[in-house]
Amino acid sequence: MFKFSKTFISYCILCVYNFGILQAQQKSIAFENVNVIPMNREVVLYNQRVIIVNGRISKIEPVSAKITEDVDSVIYAKDKYLIPGLAEMHYHLENNAQNEFKLLIANGVTTARNMAEYEGQDQIKIREQANINKILAPYYVTSGPYLKAGDLQTIDDVVNMVKMHKERGYDFLKIADNLPKEMYLKLIEETTKHNIPIIGHGQRKLPLEYSLKMKSIAHIEEFMNIFSSEQKEDPKYLKQAAIKIKKSGVYVSPTLGIFEMIGRYADDQKFEVLKKSDEIKYLPEKYAAYCMSDSIHYRTNSWFTAPESLVRLQKELQWQKKFTKILSDENVSLLAGSDTYGLFLPGFSLHRELELICEAGLSPYETLKTVTVNPAKYLNRESSGTIAEGKFADLVLLNKNPLENIQNTKTIEGVVLKGKWLDRKTLDLMLKDVEYKVKKTKN
């Protein structure tokens, strides 16, 4: 008689769940007595019935109304809050795609923008598998390789690189911050011709107006380098700059969380605390070991680690928060993105990013717009981002009201991903699956 270990049996259970998630498609779902935060305005619609049919929101009505259609599944959601699915707009696929997608989904992320294709990756194939549901994944868009000045040294380089992006079908072309003026302007010309949006870093050696030709700027940190020392400390100038940014139509990702994380890497005491994070169990052993070692870049460079550097990093983070608030006050479209890297794990990191954006002075509602409404507009995907009849059923069910405290985005009871209901038990099993696969790879 065969005997199987508990570990093997657990793995078999997880496999069944994974298969079930991919295969099961409830034709219709009803949330009963749920509080809806539609995000088209700052309001809570209490005690509602939300019906989902074939992946879209079919009806929103008071729960007191007589139900007029049969549904396959009913979720009783008294005292819970339904919000649009979250969008991670600065994601880096570092390791196993299926594992990382599960981390995103378990944290309420139903849309992800990948910001670089690394060597050995095929982001076009990953995007295809994600968006035709061959793998469990958020709605997925991606840039091509991260392009630096060395990649674009001649006009021919620029023309050929844009042609490659067009032929491959990337959603965006991502650039670094130090392109020569001639190459940058030619890049703008070629990408405009081929309708490929430029994203990435602001052009630090050029006046602000040049960076405003991009579709989106990836870090609020870029403005610290574009502006002079005097300009950074001049409230009048900063307000005028924010007005220019608004008029240009460019979107901005604050990415405050990764900047805070750099300070935690660089500070000895904070680094020791960071290495004890429970989330590390979801990272591959070798990758985690490197990120927890003193050989990581943020531990070896005195620009980060010197005592005066730690003070500087903290002051710079405060400036970035201040400018985030100025941009918000001038109605610049902000995109929440956490620049996932190292011990700043996919999914978990986005909630910290939202906390920091809120700490900058935005209201919880304004903060939620950066992760729902604004990304939908940016991606020209306005069938998502709000809760309304006819919209895609990408939703998150919370146990507490995020308009009262932005940290309540972490109180996830379940996720609707492309019309499929994933309850808390399923989400926990997905996390266990990632943890198991990491351990299995190690062994």
According to CATH, the fold-level topology of the largest domain is: TIM Barrel
Structural class: alpha/beta
Mean pLDDT: 94
Number of domains: 2
Major beta sheet summary = 8 strands, mixed
CATH superfamily of the largest domain: Metal-dependent hydrolases
Share of helical residues: 40-55%
Query: How many strands appear in the DSSP assignment?
Result: 15
Gross morphology = globular
CATH architecture of the largest domain: Alpha-Beta Barrel
Top CATH class of the largest domain: Alpha Beta
Terminal residue distance: 26 Å
Question: What does the model show?
Answer:
Strands 1, 2, 3, 4, 5, 13, 14 and 15 form an eight-stranded mixed β-sheet that branches. A seven-stranded parallel β-sheet has the order 6-7-8-9-10-11-12. The protein is globular, with a radius of gyration of 22 Å. α2 (97-106) runs antiparallel to α19 and α4 packs parallel to α5. The two termini are 26 Å apart. The chain folds into two domains: 6-84 and 388-442, Urease, subunit C, domain 1 (Roll), CATH 2.30.40.10; 142-378, TIM Barrel (Alpha-Beta Barrel), CATH 3.20.20. It has 19 helices and 15 strands. Helices cover 43% and strands 18% of the residues. It has 443 residues and is α/β, with parallel strands linked by helices. The model has no long low-confidence stretch (mean pLDDT 94).
